[in-house]
């Protein structure tokens, strides 16, 4: 998007301003939003939709119903995007984040690392920033992943630099027992308040709607009136009256694709993921998205056919050396072997079986009288998956269950048990909550006893050892509290900066967070009493694969 453009809206768009913005909306990048438009539509008169389990026949006996979360279309759609004036500062920040995500690196302008030469390798300032950014995200043991992010250095060069840094840290620890960095100096993710998130959603809605308007003009230029495939457009493209139907209309049943969006993918029991609570336009798919799906289908099919022919020809060639009369026939096992070689699944039954749980659908068994207004309780996800599994078992090629089902109740029962246990623990609380000092001492004593009895059983449980251990535990707790204070202040600063970008004033009830006190450093830490073996890699020797095999070549 062009930040210099005027993003003020026309008055004819004011009719779309009902509802309030919510934080559940997401801003799509231009590439994502061009794949398809998923609008919403007014809910039909029935409060449930029927999902056909047979792709080829409209058999009424093989149906389940997905119940609507409400009996009628909501007059107020709280998740509808709101139009407004685009904030160019927020747009610039969004474009920077998109660039960072595309390049898979977030470079800090305030950090200026000097170039250096390690051995025979020259490291520029940009390469060093990319290296440290990759290490912070992947860890120092994922050398191949770090090399993929740096790109300009080989695995050996990166491993050499990491070894150089590790050796320098060891030298520093021998000269000074204090830690190079305390916990408060490690940056943590900042947190934004709910009010700030709502304000960002309103600005994001204005950007996404403006972006969608430009993409609509581009799509209309390419596809004409058929750029947005609705049920009416799908019927016209699939009919024989179309002069030059696009290739995807001859391969796909467009009506079923649209019904999948309306009844499955955008029909969640969660209002923010249900199209009825977002807009009053029925879901549709852009023609560009269908074209991409068509290209993907053709590409995968071509690749699968090539792999199948290669495997079948290799099998036939090897078998003809023993049996000359072997026929040149592609078998089913050849296709299955080709699918396995490409890393593809044999079928998608397990994926569809778990779609109700994944998409949070409210599924009900269809009553005998479809005109009756029966308010059935939704089936549990275990019951839905069991019913679909039984339907597959009646088929010829029914596949076995891919995984063990969760006991009846699923995640809800686990959540209930967790809440019960939490409630029990809260009920056992005593007057110790009113005495934080004694509670802190009690926690320190418990942690010290745990270390002496389990983590460091070889230490003598004497008064001097317990006292030294308690001092170190108390010091680490103080450092944790210090780090929490620094994190709260960093979040406060980041949110203040965000309010300035949004050109809005923060809420009056927002509490002020002051800068933390000067950082306290200490040489007291629990690891000084007993080794916890954090550097486990220094005690592990690499063993080649050939060294683990016996004389017969078996591991």
Automatic annotation (TrEMBL):
InterPro entries from the UniProt entry: Homeodomain-like_sf, Rrn5, SANT/Myb
GO cellular component labels: RNA polymerase I upstream activating factor complex
A single BP term in Gene Ontology: nucleolar large rRNA transcription by RNA polymerase I
The protein, known as: Homeodomain-like protein
Any one GO molecular-function label of the UniProt entry: RNA polymerase I general transcription initiation factor activity
Keyword DNA-binding: yes
Ranges where the record places region Disordered: 1-81, 392-440
Keywords for the protein's UniProt record, in alphabetical order: DNA-binding, Homeobox
Protein's organism: Drechmeria coniospora
Acidic residues compositional bias, start-end: 1-15, 430-440
